[in-house]
Write a structure and sequence with these properties.
The complex is a heterodimer of chains A (700) and B (554).
Chain A lengths: L2 E7 L3 E7 L5 E7 L5 H15 L4 H5 L2 E7 L2 H7 L6 E6 L5 H4 L24 E4 L2 E2 L5 E3 L3 H13 L4 E4 L9 H13 L5 E3 H4 L5 H31 L7 E3 L5 E2 L1 H6 L7 H13 L5 E6 L4 E7 L2 E2 L1 E2 L3 E2 L2 E2 L4 E2 L1 E4 L5 E5 L5 E7 L18 H7 L17 H15 L3 H26 L8 E5 L4 H11 L3 E4 L6 H8 L2 E12 L5 H21 L7 E11 L6 E5 L9 H16 L8 E12 L3 H7 L13 E7 L4 E9 L8 E3 L2 E4 L4 E4 L4 E4 L5 E4 L18
Parallel strand pairs in A: 1-4, 4-11, 5-6, 5-9, 9-10, 13-23, 23-24, 30-32
Antiparallel strand pairs in A: 1-2, 2-3, 7-8, 11-12, 13-14, 14-15, 14-20, 16-19, 17-18, 21-22, 24-35, 25-28, 26-27, 26-28, 29-30, 31-34, 32-33, 34-35
Chain B lengths: L6 H25 L3 H4 L4 E7 L4 E4 L5 H17 L10 E4 L11 E10 L2 E11 L25 E5 L2 E2 L1 H9 L4 H29 L5 H20 L4 E10 L4 E11 L2 E5 L15 H16 L13 E4 L17 H5 L2 H9 L14 E9 L5 E9 L25 H8 L1 E8 L15 E7 L5 E6 L20 E4 L2 E3 L4 E4 L4 E5 L14 H9 L5 H8 L1 E3 L6 E3 L1
Parallel strand pairs in B: 10-11
Antiparallel strand pairs in B: 1-2, 1-5, 3-4, 3-6, 4-5, 6-7, 8-9, 9-10, 12-13, 12-16, 14-15, 15-20, 16-19, 17-18, 17-20, 21-22
Helix pairs in contact in B: 1-5, 3-7, 4-5, 7-9
Classes of the chains: A alpha+beta (700), B alpha+beta (554).
Chain lengths: 700, 554
């Protein structure tokens, strides 16, 4: 067992980042294969195996860990290609998914659209019976109404069923009985029960997560099963781990049981990668792929988890690492709208047919085509020369925009380039403003194969002084999955408070959660010495209803020390809100054990330094590239990013081409290569302001 | 350019101060004890510069409070001029005429000191669960019955709580724990705001916010004046009846548009009534500001600039300028009508750009004990349908002009032990139109507390339905039922254990001729259960064959 790897499937490319026993890391890319994403998965594995001189079986037999960032559920939801879910609710409450939680509107905004509910009324059915807030049955389940509801959903063409009944979180018996009746009447239809999936109070959040989950069962189940089987057939001996939306990982059985957790699985790995790449406290993480542009952030060294993530026009209902996605990628299509304004995206040429310059039948002008016309991308060195681009096709496509707008070809290409930049900047500001992060004072990690062409100008506009283009920028998410610790959270609800603390019940619960987490780590092959456990509870003052998360330690005891728990709550409340109320009752609601499997890879990487630069650095060529400051194409030096050694630096304006990305440095931007082969760019160009300079041997 | 900052800098700094106001809201919601704040969003947070000029507000603040807040700030500075304030001071008041129009809201203000200088103020406003007196209702005959009056006073002096004041307040209310928790949540969020402002000034190298605030205010003012200049000058009148207590109350307005400014005169409005639904001037003013901003520059963040082009007058003693000691507990039930009154007047100036009437909010204030015997005084918000606008259907069950959120049923049931029996959208309650008015909803609750509960109702639109625009039909009327018998939606009742109260919320008005509505939109509404086949035929002239699903216009 010598290899670890992570495969991240995006809309256009499937990335695979592999580490060998010595900690040498390589990235491989293959075209994504929408409709049958598992093909691209195996294609890229075969590519990697070939690099190590092995066949697929020989290679997989030596792989000890595969983490997977999948796009299958996000794609299905965004494109509306999920199963048609039916929704079963209590009698009297058919409109939970329409009414949502208000939804709150900006006071002055009365031009409101009216989003249709995730499940239309025609596939909603209600059943008699009621549980109250204390878990008591105040009206027995009306089984005849359940039978009628099942029949109604079947006739309406439902393909999966989500069940969310009032107060199932304190007494799930009605939901469980409904599931039994569904399974008896309609064997094989996927069913999600709200109290099992998302045991939180507030019916809309629980219900929406439930129906989204139900709608994903077939897609995710089929995909993960096919993939697991294919991997096993090719000699992989462990369980596949799928990155989930809360920054953890789930083995096949768990992700198939709760497919909603696979939403945005790949993009969630990008901020995880950034956290391992830099020690900066506030970091903006961007990743421009072929189809979408994803933004996330690290604040105070921590991933930002939001309980109110949106997917389309609905809440996801479960907590998720906050990653915003907009339709702005290399494949985004440029067009001129009815008002004569240039628009770029959100429509994308995707992987097939792709940008016009791919020569695969695409005719629409895309951002990549514009970058070819501008000379930023060398058509003979795209993906290290593995894909030859057709500059004539790019020029023809962009030329149509130029003609419509009545401007020159280069001007049109730059208009597409910079419009795309502003689209991305809007998305960045959306998340930084919300999180109170000032872009000008933040560090930025620029991931994605297409981002590096754009980051120079975006940094200028945003006023970002320092940013990083990681060596594995083109596979940032995949790198995150490779380098990350294994994380697995087990959560349960147990209400108690500091006046009547249920010490024994809490001890029992924590032991059970820890046992389950430990079993997960064992299954994933983490040796006992590499396992550790983190404990968190959610608490609030009596009468408050929004909890805060409080980490605590067990110190080898079975039951947490009450005094320390309470003290930690007051301290956390004071840290977050500046006040505490020490005489108030503290309520504990939810308990979580996070099982963590250490990943030794990070230490090995630190040892395997990128070779230092020896001798003077010379450009491999000069080629004309459009510089907006000059208003024209200018011959710029082009450096071979694959051979620039650690410690060397390049001053803009210049182009650096590596196998998987091309970056255009603007005047005043200086890139320095660190010991990992990452490019640290300082906009001021002043030495000494870099994060961790690896010996400033400014040679370029 | 309006000042010291270029458009890019101004954009960034402006976004930052608005995001600080948003963070204050977040802290307030997270730390509050009562459901009206933490679940329904009955709150506002605002930021002022060192001169007391309003600079920013949380994006989701309610429009009444953001309109009353700036005058409240001025009253506070008159009572405690800046030189009498020191770091750690916090001011409070619930005066209806200087605050929000009734005693139930507290206004909590904190001066922000940074590097030894007074640089800003933050103000938060929330609705308290109780303020003593006869309890939150419309039934009082004067303001003294309505509860405890807190003058503008220092709640904290240099970081130390004013124990005597706190003792007076907590000694006068039914839910001292919850009231103390909500007051302290206001203190907390302002503390958070002060911290964020200091960080922001350090990060951006600002010693003072005045230049920024001048530029933000001027930019906003100019944008509003420009939008007002696009409307034809002239005087536009509107008048209608609103359900009072012993019959209808006449509202009248004359709106005069003149070269980038607008003035409202409410002469002709009936006098105050002998019940707690009278509207202090500050509240009337807030809804003038709301209506004009919604019609001119809805997308710009709110600040003092959006109030400058607006002037108003109302005869003292009329319902929209009630004077002390008139009772004002339910002033919002009547005060919200200022918005449709103005919309109706300005629809003559800008036809097609004004929204039809909305079904508006209703509230039930439930006081008594829950099943565990704990005292409760909890407010249940429900929305009627939103008015349609040419091009946009009104949203079902969506509040207007205010923007409160409905309480999740599970949160409501666990706190009060009330049982919600149903909460569903009512088909055909929205006004028909080329653009359909939003449907209302039907909510029925049973008293499962085991104790009698006092229920105070706050609602209108039970006699005069929300009107449509441009040929759109009116929305359905509101109705309240106690044990299935109709009751006064402004009354106070005792709900016996096991008894029920049901509210049918009014629908929004439609926009445009219903017969101009696309057949496929009518069909989609019928399929979704929002319009009945009978109403499709009667109101829209659309026949639907249930066998084939084919639809056609007769």
């Amino acid at each position: 067992m010598t290899y670890q790897l992570c495969i991240d499937i995006g809309g256009t490319f499937t990335d695979c980042v592999v580490s060998d026993a010595a900690g040498d890391v390589r990235i491989f890319k293959a075209r994504s294969t929408p409709g049958a994403f598992e093909r691209g998965f195996l294609d890229v594995l075969a590519l990697a195996a070939g690099h190590y001189g092995l066949d697929l079986n020989g290679f997989l037999g030596q792989v000890e860990r595969i983490v997977h960032g999948t796009t299958v559920s996000t794609n299905a939801l965004v494109e509306g290609k999920v199963a048609r879910a039916g929704f079963i609710a209590n009698q009297g409450f058919p409109d939970i998914l329409t009414l949502r939680e208000g939804p709150r509107k900006r006071a002055f905004e009365w031009r409101l659209d009216f989003p249709a509910p995730f499940v239309p009324p025609g596939r909603t059915a209600t059943v008699g019976g009621r549980i109250d807030a204390h878990g008591q049955e105040i009206e027995p389940l009306d089984e005849a109404s359940v039978a009628a509801a099942i029949e109604r959903l079947r006739r309406a063409g439902a393909e999966a069923i989500g069940v969310c009944l009032m107060w199932s979180i304190v007494n799930g018996s009605h939901e469980r009985r409904v599931a039994e009746l569904i399974r008896a009447a309609w064997p094989g239809v996927p069913v999600t029960l709200s109290h099992e999936l998302n045991p939180i109070p507030r019916e809309y959040r629980r219900a929406i997560a439930t129906v989204i989950d139900a709608s994903l069962h077939a897609t995710v189940g089929r995909y993960v099963s096919v993939l697991s089987r294919a991997l096993a057939e090719h000699g992989f001996k462990r369980e596949l781990l799928v990155g989930n939306c809360v920054g953890g990982m789930m083995p096949p059985a768990e992700i198939i049981a709760k497919p909603i957790y696979s939403v945005m699985s790949g993009p969630t790995l990008a901020p995880i990668a950034a956290r391992h790449l830099t020690d900066e406290a506030d970091v903006i993480v961007i990743d421009m792929g072929g189809t979408t542009f994803d933004v996330s952030a690290i604040r105070g060294g921590k991933l930002i988890v939001t309980p109110e993530a949106m997917i389309g026009r609905d809440m996801l209902g479960i907590p998720k690492v906050d990653v915003r996605s907009v339709g702005a990628g290399g494949g985004s299509i440029a067009r001129v709208d009815v008002g004569g304004l240039l628009r770029v995206g959100p429509e994308s040429a995707g992987a097939v047919p792709g940008p016009a310059c791919y020569g695969s039948g695409g005719v629409d002008p895309t951002v990549t085509d514009a970058n070819v016309v501008l000379g930023i991308i060398d058509p003979n060195y795209f993906l290290g020369g593995r894909i030859r681009l057709d500059p004539a096709a790019a020029a023809a496509a962009v030329g149509r925009i130029a003609k419509t707008l009545g401007i020159g070809l280069i001007e049109a290409a730059y208009a597409i380039h910079t419009t795309s930049n502003h689209n991305m900047i809007t998305a960045i500001e959306d998340i930084t403003v919300r999180e109170g992060i000032n872009p000008r004072d933040s560090y930025l990690v620029s991931g994605g194969g297409a981002t590096a062409c754009h980051i120079g100008e975006m940094a200028e506009i945003l006023g970002i002084e320092r940013f990083m283009i990681p060596r594995f920028a083109a596979g940032l998410s995949a790198f995150g999955g490779l380098i990350s610790e294994l994380r697995w959270g087990e959560t349960a609800t147990l209400h108690t408070d500091n006046r009547r603390f249920a010490a024994d019940a809490v001890a029992e619960l924590l032991a059970e959660l820890r046992r389950r987490g430990d079993a997960f780590l064992a299954r994933a092959g983490v040796p006992p010495g590499e396992r550790r456990f983190e404990y968190v509870y959610q608490g609030r003052y009596e009468y408050q209803s929004w909890e805060i998360e409080v980490p605590f330690e067990l110190n080898g005891e079975a039951s947490p020390d009450l005094a320390r728990l309470v003290e930690a709550f007051h301290a956390m409340h004071e840290r977050v809100y500046s006040i505490k109320a020490e005489s108030d009752t503290v309520e504990f609601t939810t308990w979580r054990v996070q099982a963590v499997g250490r990943n030794r890879l990070k230490e090995r990487l630190a040892d395997s330094a990128w070779p230092r630069q020896s001798g003077p650095l010379r450009p491999k060529a000069k080629r004309p590239v459009y510089l907006h400051a000059a208003g024209a194409l200018r011959p710029l030096p082009v450096y071979d990013g694959n051979v620039i050694g650690a410690g060397a630096s390049v001053d803009g304006p210049a182009v650096i081409e590596a196998e998987t990305f091309t970056t255009l440095l603007l005047a005043g931007q200086r890139a320095e290569v660190d010991g990992q082969g990452n490019y640290l760019v300082d906009r001021g160009g002043q030495a000494g302001r870099l994060g961790q300079p690896q010996g400033p041997a400014a040679i370029g | 350019m309006n000042g010291a900052y270029d458009p890019v800098e101004l954009g960034i700094l402006w976004d930052r101060v608005v995001s600080i106001a948003d963070e204050i809201v977040t802290a307030l919601i997270a730390t509050s004890f009562s459901t009206m704040v933490r679940e329904s969003g009955d709150l506002s947070c605002m930021l002022f510069d060192a001169r007391g000029k309003s600079l920013a507000q949380g994006a989701y603040s309610v429009p009444s409070f953001t309109g009353t807040g700036p005058p409240t700030m001025q009253h506070m500075l008159r009572r405690f001029p800046p030189e009498t304030l020191e770091p750690g001071d916090v001011l409070i008041t619930n005066d209806p005429w200087m605050g929000t129009g009734h005693l139930y809201d507290i206004n909590v203000m904190r001066p922000v000191f940074h590097r030894g200088r007074l640089v800003a103020f933050t103000l938060s406003v929330t609705h308290l669960p109780d303020i003593g007196g006869a309890g939150y209702a419309t039934t009082a005959r004067d303001v003294f019955e309505e509860g405890l009056w807190i003058p503008i006073a220092k709640l904290m002096r240099a970081g130390r709580i004013n124990d005597e004041l706190m003792e007076i307040v907590l000694g006068n209310v039914r839910l001292p724990d919850m009231v103390r928790g909500d007051i302290m949540a206001n203190v907390t969020c302002n503390e958070v705001g002060g911290r964020l402002i200091g960080e922001f000034m350090d990060e951006c190298g600002l010693a003072d916010l005045s230049a920024l605030s001048d530029q933000i205010i001027l930019t906003t003012e100019q944008a509003m004046r420009q939008a007002l200049r696009r409307m034809p000058a002239g005087t536009y009148r509107n008048a209608f009846d609103v359900e009072g207590v012993d019959g209808a109350v006449r509202y009248a307005v004359a709106a005069t548009l003149d070269g980038g400014s607008i003035a409202f005169d409410f002469t002709g409005t009936d006098p105050i009534v002998n019940r707690g639904i009278n509207v202090p001037f500050c509240y009337t003013s807030a809804f003038c500001n709301y209506a004009v901003k919604a019609l001119t520059i809805p997308q710009l963040p709110n600040n003092e600039g959006a109030a400058r082009p607006i002037a108003l007058s109302a005869p003292p003693g009329c319902l929209l300028n009630a004077e002390r000691p008139a009772p004002t507990g339910g002033r919002h039930v009547m005060g919200h009508f200022v918005a449709p009154l103005i919309f109706g007047a300005l629809a003559q100036a800008i036809p097609g750009e004004v929204q039809a009437d909305s079904g508006m909010l209703s509230q039930l204030n439930c006081t008594g004990r829950n099943r565990q015997g704990q005292p409760i005084a909890s407010l249940f918000f429900a929305s009627g349908g939103f008015g349609a606008l040419a091009g946009i259907d009104g949203r079902d069950a969506c509040p207007g002009p205010s923007n409160m959120i409905g309480t999740p049923i599970e949160v409501w049931e666990s706190e009060t032990s009330m049982r919600v029996l149903h909460k569903e959208i009512v088909a055909d309650s929205g006004g028909a139109g080329a653009w359909r008015g939003g449907n209302g909803q039907r909510i029925k609750q049973r008293n499962d507390t085991g104790h009698p509960l006092a229920i105070a109702c706050f609602a209108a639109r039970d006699r005069f339905p929300p009107q449509g625009v441009d040929g759109g039909r009116p929305g359905g009327l509101r109705q309240f039922l106690l044990n299935d018998q109709p009751i006064d939606p402004k009354g106070r009742y005792v709900l016996a254990p096991g008894g029920t109260i049901e509210t049918l919320e009014a629908g929004g008005g439609g926009a445009g001729d219903p017969r101009a509505r696309a057949v496929e939109l009518v069909l989609a509404d019928v399929r979704a259960g929002l319009v009945s086949p009978a109403a499709a035929r009667r109101d829209y002239g659309v026949e639907i064959d249930p066998a084939t699903g084919r639809a056609w216009r007769r």
